[in-house]
Amino acid sequence: MKREEKNAISRQRILNAALNEFSKKGYGGASLNAVCAENSISKGIIYHHFKDKDELYLICVRDCFNALTAYMEDVQEDMLGDIEQRLSAYFDARLRFFAEHPLYLGIFLDVVLNPPIHLSTQLAEAQSAFDTLNISVLTELLESTSLRKGISVAAVTEDFRMYMDFFNARFCGAITDDITLEDVLHEHEERSHRQLSILLYGVLEHEND
Known about the structure:
Number of helices: 10
Radius of gyration: 20 Å
CATH superfamily of the domain at 58-201: Tetracycline Repressor, domain 2
Order of helices and strands: HHHHHHHHHH
CATH topology of the domain at 58-201: Tetracycline Repressor, domain 2
Largest sheet: none
Distance between the termini: 68 Å
Strand content: under 5%
Low-confidence stretches: none
Mean pLDDT: 90
Helix content: over 70%
CATH architecture of the domain at 58-201: Orthogonal Bundle
Number of strands: 0
């Protein structure tokens, strides 16, 4: 086996071990010592391929959001029907992705709900394509109907970004230790869906409802 092939295999082995560690423990709870001890990997080999824990974490985050974005782009064409049906299909697709890729679940929740502050710029870049896709989905929904006078699509999408930042911060504070990652995801997606529905329809009952 050529040296380049050995290096590639070694690098991928480290990444797989790091993905498992970050997915289970998040950035704050993960350690390179655990990656080494639980996978028979020397710390010297890790530092031969990667600068530090931050670099490993960011690579795992990029892999997660790249895979999620590609998946959502592929299924977007199948989201048909009225606005509520398309919203339901969108959130169902997100749940399916994590059911099919469980190791990415912990990474996603860690970035969305408990991101390491010192990596905020890099994390924003890593999930920028996914954020852009989310806004494009919302924009398409808004453009498919009529908005109230004086309200623009751009204003609604910007307000939704700000609101979701606040929502995620509050949601993180409500998580308890006895709940599984799968339960956290389902609760988060259900509440996100509800908040988006409130944004689109409000909370007051109309006579024609």
